[in-house]
Amino acid sequence: MPNDPYLDASVVWRIKSGNLDFKESSYSSVKEAILSSGLATEVIGLISSGKEADVYLTSYRGAPLAVKVYRLYRTSHRGGRPIKLDALGWLAAREYEMTRQAWNGGALVPAPARRVDNMFSMRYLGTDEGPAPKLNEVDPDNPEVMLNMVVSGIEQLAKAGVVHSDLSAFNILLHDGKPWFIDLAEAVRVDRTGEAPWRRLQEASVALDRGLSSLQGYFDRYELDVGKDVLVNRIVSSLDRHNVLNRA
User: H or E stretch including 215?
Assistant: First the structure.
């Protein structure tokens, strides 16, 4: 059995009993899963494919929606056997909740609709001609204005209680002339810092530093400075409501 040490008992039982197909799901089986879950009434086609999840263009009674489907397994980049993800539905649940938190706080993220198991539906960002392009694929007419909008979006995310942990020009879509943030599965929740606020704020600081460094690589094309250090300090300080960082 593939990668035995990485399989929990319930998954092993499902494979042995024939209730779980270890192979990659076919398009037809994913389509059937989306339709039978009630997330959509029509599946139009695949929008994008990643190592952990795929996104499909669908519609619900004529209204366009995007449905993100996380895989139970992903394939090793080294050509080895499949590797189990953390758990069926866990990443979908986390991204759905993070996206809802951000959307409720007024951040530019696709409005989440419903989640079922390892799938969730959300607003489709795009037109009849195709999905909204990623920032990395676009040369904006005014890069400085775009930078200001991206920075404002990052600050609004934090104000809503979410710090993106995989921030890059690949996870920002341009729709209606604005930058929209996607892929929040591993975001850091900062509206409540819990019993260890210092640790949570440090996680947020590291995530922001990493993400802004990535964005700096994109804006280097236009010789623009993201202002990483100033921005990280400003955002984290705004989140440090009890001044725990200065007391650490």
Answer: helix 197-219
Buried-state track 10-39, b at ≥16 Cβ within 10 A, e below 16: ebeebeeeeeeeeeebeeeebbebbeebeb
Question: Cβ contacts of residue 63 below 8 Å, gap of 6+?
Answer: none
Query: For the chain, what are the domain ranges?
Result: 4-126, 132-247
The model's pTM: 0.83
Give the burial class of 58: count Cβ atoms within 10 A of its Cβ; 0-12 exposed, 13-18 middle, 19 or more buried: buried
Residues in the chain: 248
DSSP 127-156: ETTEEPPBGGG---SSHHHHHHHHHHHHHH
Tens-digit pLDDT string for the chain (248 aa): 444 444 445 444 544 555 544 455 788 999 999 999 999 999 999 999 887 899 999 999 999 999 999 987 654 444 444 445 445 568 899 999 999 999 999 999 999 999 998 899 999 999 989 999 999 999 999 999 999 999 999 999 999 999 998 999 999 999 999 999 999 998 999 987 565 777 888 999 999 999 999 999 999 999 999 999 999 999 999 988 767 666 55
- Which CATH architecture best describes the domain 132-247? Orthogonal Bundle (1.10)
What class has domain 4-126? alpha beta
